[in-house]
Amino acid sequence: MRVGTVVDAPRLPPELDDLRIRAESGDHVAGCRLGARLVYCGSVVEATSERVIQFHRDIEERASQAGDLEKANRAAESLLRSVELARHCQGLPERPDLLGYHYLRQAALGGNADAIILHASGSSLGTSMRHGWDFLRDGRFDQWRSEAPAMLQKQIEKGDPAAVLALVKAYNDSTMLAWILPPDPDRAYALDRLAEMLIDPPGHAPSLDMRSLPTRAQFAGARETAREWHATYFGGRKYASGPQLQRLVPPARDWRDEGPASDTCTGAESWP
C-alpha cells in the first residue's frame, strides 16, 4: 500500500463498509469516522488478542479461587475491556491503522475540522505494541510532518480554537506534534495567551509549561500578538468551559482512552 492511497483495500464489516463507500464518494464526516475507528483499533490490537483475553480470564479465576476478590475484580474489569475492544474491532484487516491513516488524512485534506485536529496532532499515525513505530519507515511520518503545521495554522485562521489548544499542548512537548515544531518561544507564548483569551472562565485552558519565564518584553509582545489573533481570527469570541471544551482539548478530543466517541467527527469545518 502506498502512503496516502488505498490499493485493493480489504473488506470491512458492513457498517464500516458503508462509511468507506460514503468516504470514497467525498463524505469527509464518514471518512473521519472510519479513519478514527480504524486507527484506534490498530492501536489496541494487542489488547484484543485471544492470548491477552485468556490471560485476564486465568488471573480472575486464580484470584477468585484464592479469595482475593480485589484482584479478581481488577482482572474482570480488564477482561471486560479487552472483550469490548475485540467486539468493537472485529472483522478488520490485519493493519487497520494503515487504512485509517488514509481516511483520516483524506478527510483532513477535505476540510473536516475534527479530522484536521486528529491528523495534524499525530493521532492518525497510530502506535501499537505489535507494529511499534513503523510509520517512521513507511513514509507516513514524512508525509504527515510536511502537512501538519500548515493545516493547524490554516485552522486557526478559520477560527477553530481546537487548533490553538493542540499547538499549546505540542509546545508543552506532550504530543507527537512536538517532534516537528521548531523552537519558537515567542509564538508559544502568544498561543498560550490566545488560549487563555479564548476560554471562559480563565484558567480552564491548557497552559504552557514555562520552563523559563518570558522577559517582560516577550510577555508584552505575546499578549499583543494574541489580542490581534483573537480579534482577527476569532472575532473576539470566547468559548465557555464545559462539555464542549472537552472536545477541544487534545487528547480529550481524541478517542484513544475510550474508543472513538460518537461525536468524534462532525460535519463542521470550524468550531460552531
UniProtKB/TrEMBL annotation:
Residues 263-272 have a biased composition (Polar residues). This is Sel1 repeat family protein. It comes from Arenimonas donghaensis DSM 18148 = HO3-R19. The lineage of its organism: Bacteria, Pseudomonadati, Pseudomonadota, Gammaproteobacteria, Lysobacterales. Residues 252-272 are annotated as: Disordered. It comes from the Bacteria. InterPro entries: TPR-like_helical_dom_sf (IPR011990).
